[in-house]
Every structure is written in C-alpha cells, then in structure tokens.
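Example 212.
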Amino acid sequence: MNAETYPFVVRPLPYEYDALIPVLDEETMHFHHDKHYKTYVDNLNSALADYPELQRLSLKELLSDIEALPAQIRTPIRNNGGGVYNHELYFDSMKNPVGQEPEGALAAAIDRDFGSYKQWKEQMKQAAVTKFGSGWAWLVTDNKGQLSIVQTANQDVPDLQEYTPVFLIDVWEHAYYLQYQNRRVEYAEGWFDLINWRKAGKRYEDALGGCI
Ligand code: MN
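Predicted structure in complex with manganese (II) ion:
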C-alpha cells in the first residue's frame, strides 16, 4: 500500500459502512472516512501543490525522512501525510465478519515476543487506553521480524526506516466518540474482534521479504 504519489485520492473502505457493526456503527464510519480521512487527503494535496519535486514521492517516502523536507512543509506533511497513511492502514486493518485469529508466522512471533496471544492483547489494550490525548497504538515489526507495540501522538508515524507497521488502532476521540462517548476501553476491547489477521499476517511476511 501507499505506493501511489500526488495527487493522493480518497480510497474507498474495503467493506461496507455497516460492516463493522456492532463494534463500529455506520455513522462513525461515515464521519471517520468521509470527513476526517478525506480532509487529511485534501490537505496533503494542498500542501504538496507548490512542491513539484516532492510530488514524485510516495507517502512512505515523504514520511520516512521528514527532516529532509523543506522546513516550511514539514509540519503539514507530518500531520496530513501521517493522517492519510495512518487512516488508510487503520481502515485496511479491519474486516468483517469477526472470527479470524492470528495464524502462521505472525501468530508464532506474537507468542515468541509477548509470551502468548493473551499477554500481547493485554499489552496492546494498555497501549491503546493509556495513550494520553489523541494518537495511535501500533503493532510493528523490525526487519528481522521482532514485534513491538508502540504509541504515537497526533498523526505521527513510527520510524518507518526501522519498522514496518502490521496494524494500528486509532484512539482519537473521533474514532469512537459518536458510539462510545468517553468509553475508550470498550471501543478498544471491541476493536480486537475487527483485526484482519489475514492481511496482518501478509504485511508481516512481506516486511521480512518472504524469507521466513
Ligand atoms: Mn481517525
């Protein structure tokens, strides 16, 4: 994913707006995708409009070395480019119907790096519910397949030169407030049922170059 370049386009959800009920309702998905995510896409394109030399770069390339960008565009790229990257991965990390479980190399790596699925889930949930303010909790892998849970603030991404994201949970209030109000824990608990483990497993294996 994220291989395309400017002008970035709003990607449709890979499922219907009501596909994630009961964990995420249709209204939440419409606002999140059609308003919040779309705004990041529009603002990213506006930011890049006057920088033809940056329009050839993919989103990952833009976000991998923000310090290398012209000073006046770093913050717009960080916030809006991150907003696009993070939301595309978030929407693509969920699925319907519920019922998949971790399998294959990723399941084995979770057991190896966290002790068990149960222990991983507890740590992932803690990362999601303890992120102060707006941000994200991520499962990432390094290029050797070592998994880590990380938190980022706002629309920041992890170090994309060091890590490949496997999936992430949005803990901005806009991700859950319409349905859960302040009950972030309830949203986070429900989100585990939405994880698309098949795609996650493929992302993990792709990150290792298929050599596992
Ligand atoms: Mn969001």
